[in-house]
Amino acid sequence: MAEVSGKSFIPESFPGYSSDMAGQIGVLWELIKAPLIVPLLTICVYICLAMSIMVFLERLYMGVVIVLVKLFWKKPEKRYKWEPMKDDLEMGNGAFPLVLVQIPMFNEKEVYKISIGAACNLSWPADRLVIQVLDDSTDLVIKDMVEKECIRWASKGVNIRYQIRETRGGYKAGALKEGLKRDYVKECDYVVIFDADFRPEPDFLRRSVPFLIHNPDIALVQARWRFVNSNECLLTRMQEMSLDYHFTVEQEVGSATHAFFGFNGTGGIWRIAAINEAGGWKDRTTVEDMDLAVRAGLKGWKFLYLGDLQVKSELPSTFKAFRFQQHRWSCGPANLFRKMMMDIATNKKVTLYKKFYVIYSFFFVRKIIAHMFTFFFYCVVLPLSILVPEVHVPKWGAIYLPCIITALNSVGTPRSFHLLFYWVLFENVMSFHRTKATLIGLLEAKRVNEWVVTEKLGDTLKNKGGKAGAPKKSLSKILGDRIQLHELGFAVFLFVCGCYDFLYGKNCYFVYLFLQVITFTIAGFGYIGTIVPSS
């Protein structure tokens, strides 16, 4: 029997034996490559190509439908009953339904005045409007500031209520649920929700409420988000591109074809009866808005998206805040899909076609496959295939389909078309975080219910005094917030694959890989988005 020394893990009698460690690793690699690595990687390529086709067909379907909607569909005012709100001299303000405005807050020092002021300036009879500020702030100074702002508006005759809770149980869902339990809410017919950074136009209610009044089967009217800080930095431009596609295409298509889409959590007005029938707000996931929308949709309620009804808001401009937001937005839908898939499949109130749309299109492809395909194919499988030339990735899957998918994604923000290539590189970086969050949601692993409120900067950086009271951070804290080891690790991996392709490859993938290395490195060192001064 051949001997194996302490410095060797390959028998000396083995063909191609080498005494040096590098040589032994090379022999071991050749030993396992053909029977193990090549078949496994080939299977991964086929799986990724299948996911690529699924995403492509989904984007193509959405593209075709949105073109038909724009060309042939009637506007919402023509498809649904709608009459403008008019002042009735005989009935007085009784012609206007009682509307509740909920503004959930958590330590919103920079933006609380904006949202409260915008809500108080809504064009609606004062005695038919109740504004509810749901303050879960843990900072007593901020709590006092928000309460004083509410008192200031109340002194002007605005019916505004400042509500606090003993604990933050259920986070935003818990606050909204608690707010609906108040006695003065029982007479309200509708509730509109605005996050702390949202600033509706005065005519918001006059344009949205008539759809609910004259169409008793509509539960939700969702407005489009517009972003006041989209030009602040490259990070906000990237977000604008993704969210504009979501509103311009996904929400519009869902509204026009199925009267169903995911509630965006803010900038929308609900029929309170629909919320109650669906079971109210639940805090079992981090996407309480989507949870409520799916349950209401399964009850047969319809939703309406108004693309021309727009509400200004703020995008997270720091990379840390954006990562936390994307974790919540990726983990929550996956976890909700796990919890509700059987409820959707066995529901008898909606059509089979709508159930297929919700399970396959809304959840499976958009919320799960899209993230995993982007990460595994472009950041793992394609680079590995360069190191294993026996594995072939067809060009239609590596180049042509991705280019078409990217082009279809760009229709939402034509002004940023020149940033499309960098957007792809950035989305590949973020796909790592989204895939990790999606797997956490599907497996209900640690952090599945982690809720971190998205930080809003407001005008902090514009005000010279904005950094005056900021606590000074230690060097270790600054580096901990800035340095991302996972991104730097992927940058090294892709750099090695790029160098190998440059030296031995035939497909010139190194051009893409080196650009992706630069993007991962920039993200790894935290040079994305607004850098908030530490003192």
TrEMBL record:
Q: What is the E.C. number?
A: 2.4.1.32
Is the keyword Transferase in the record? yes
Give residue ranges for domain Glycosyltransferase 2-like.
190-389
Q: Which UniProt keywords apply?
A: Cell wall biogenesis/degradation, Glycosyltransferase, Golgi apparatus, Membrane, Transferase, Transmembrane, Transmembrane helix
What's the chief localization of this chain? Golgi
Matching Pfam families, A to Z?
Glyco_trans_2_3 (PF13632)
Listed SUPFAM superfamilies = Nucleotide-diphospho-sugar transferases
What GO molecular function annotation could you give as one example from this UniProt entry? glucomannan 4-beta-mannosyltransferase activity
What CDD domains does its record include? CESA_CaSu_A2
User: Could you say which protein family the record assigns here?
Assistant: Belongs to the glycosyltransferase 2 family. Plant cellulose synthase-like A subfamily.
Q: What is this protein called?
A: glucomannan 4-beta-mannosyltransferase
The scientific name of the source species is Perilla frutescens var. hirtella
Instruction: State the taxonomy lineage.
Output: Eukaryota, Viridiplantae, Streptophyta, Embryophyta, Tracheophyta
